[in-house]
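User: Hey, my collaborator sent me this sequence without any context and asked if I could get a structure. I don't really work with proteins. Can you help?
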Amino acid sequence: VQLQASGGGLVQPGGSLRLSCAASGSILSIGTANWYRQAPGKQREWVGLITTGGNAGYAEFVGGRFTISRDNAKNTVYLQMNSLKPEDTAVYYCSVVLNGGDYWGQGTLVTVSS
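Assistant: No problem. I've predicted the 3D structure and written it out in structure-token form, which is a compact way to encode the shape of the chain:
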């Protein structure tokens, strides 16, 4: 069982990106998924989560700009990021409860710069 995060890249301020976190392997159950990020020189911080039932919650700094969703048929969780700011530059990580255990993706770099 593993998680693969993807979708990062370079985007201009005000732009959008959609990150994906896909689970693969022998998956019997998928629980709550969290997104975190770690900016250069800073501690990792929580971005938001989505429950199995699709209820989402976000950190205050998101300010309505990000949306977390999931496609259970594809074993994939998404982080749609709009109105990106330079301070959103970070490595983004997903963490998903799979088969009762906590798994982490490898991280995907998002750079917001003109």
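In plain terms: The chain has no helices and eleven strands. You can pass these tokens on to your collaborator as they are.
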